[in-house]
Amino acid sequence: MEATWPLTHNRRPWTEVQDDVLREAYGKAPVERIAKVLGRTVSATVVHARELGLTKGCRVWTDDEIDRLAELRQHMTMREASGLMGRSEWACQRKVLDMRKAGDERFKRIRKRRGE
After folding, report:
1. What is the 3-state secondary structure (H, E, C) of the chain?
2. What's the CA gap between 89 and 25, in Å, rounded?
3. Residue 26: beta bridge partners?
4. pLDDT digit string (tens) for 4-27?
5. The pLDDT value given to residue 10
6. What whole-number distance in Å separates Cα of residue 104 and Cα of residue 81?
7. Which of 20, 32, 43, 92 lies most in the core, judged by the most C-beta atoms within 10 Å?
């Protein structure tokens, strides 16, 4: 059997309900979970998300969140603070570094005293 270009696949059409689920969940839940719920492969889910113009995108930090992070990190570990904020530990660490680089005094290094 000779292959012809472009190769075509027997793709099942996406339903409006599947599109709505994908729009709602993409970037909020792991793609593997979304694909399983939709009965699709991970690659099919990612490709269709792109076709719909969806991106995982980053959540923008609000001023209130930055203020809260500055306060929380004075009293707890980054892991604890990130859990309370609903952000990943990595995202919080990155924001602290960005704010420190921007010269925000609230994010200066916290020195631990011996014995703590």
Report:
1. CCCCCCCCCCCCCCCHHHHHHHHHHECCECHHHHHHHHCCCHHHHHHHHHHCCCCCCCCCCCHHHHHHHHHHCCCCCHHHHHHHHCCCHHHHHHHHHHHHHCCCHHHCCCCCCCCC
2. 21
3. 29
4. 555 556 678 999 999 999 999 888
5. 64
6. 18
7. 92
Model confidence over 31-72: pLDDT tens digits?
A: 899 999 999 999 999 999 999 988 877 678 899 999 999 999
Q: Which two tokens stand for residue 83?
A: 């859990």
Question: Hey, what amino acid is at 97?
Answer: L
- What's the pTM? 0.49
Tell me the residue length of the chain: 116
Structure tokens at 31: 């793609």
What is the Cα–Cα distance from 54 to 23, expressed in whole angstroms? 7
62 CA to centre of own chain: 16
